Amino acid sequence: MASSAIPSVSLQLEHLRETADLGTRMTQSGTVGVSGLGDRYYARGREFELLKTVPIPLELQQQMQQTRSRFEMGLFPEIAHAWVTIDCDIFMWNYETNDDLAYFDGIQNTIVKISLARPKTGVFQAHVHWVLVVATDAKSRSSLKPCSKLTWKMRL
């Protein structure tokens, strides 16, 4: 008797798997005991609003296709620049005007993180308001950012 029920139960389980929504599939009948999986952990309504889209510069799109090991991208709203790292190269451009693409290829190791930081007063010349910190898989370096948002000059 039990052996005759196996195909029926198997068919029912397969049907449940195919028709269950993602919430049910990830949880036990929609209830969870783990933070982050239930609806109650998320705010209702619009959390983000799309204000503007800016295409990635064409020259950079071509470079992105050549990625060998690591690709990261982000924004530096403090200076209105977007950034992309591809392996050991850094690309930055003004996302407000979608121009002023700058390229820096002087790093020999794969870049794992970049960040902006304010330099300590008196360490650099007065016109330097930002330091670009670059961490690679081998070491960290810093690069200078003059205060003008329209020009990007990097040097080591």
UniProtKB/TrEMBL annotation:
One of its GO terms (biological process) is protein import into nucleus. It is found in: Nucleus. Pfam families: Nucleoporin_N. Residues 48-137 form the Nucleoporin Nup133/Nup155-like N-terminal domain. Its main location: nucleus. InterPro entries: Nucleoporin_Nup133/Nup155_N (IPR014908), Nucleoporin_Nup155 (IPR004870). Keywords: Nucleus, Transport. GO terms for molecular function: structural constituent of nuclear pore. Transmembrane segments: none annotated. GO terms for cellular component: nuclear pore inner ring. This is Nucleoporin Nup133/Nup155-like N-terminal domain-containing protein. It comes from Mesorhabditis belari.
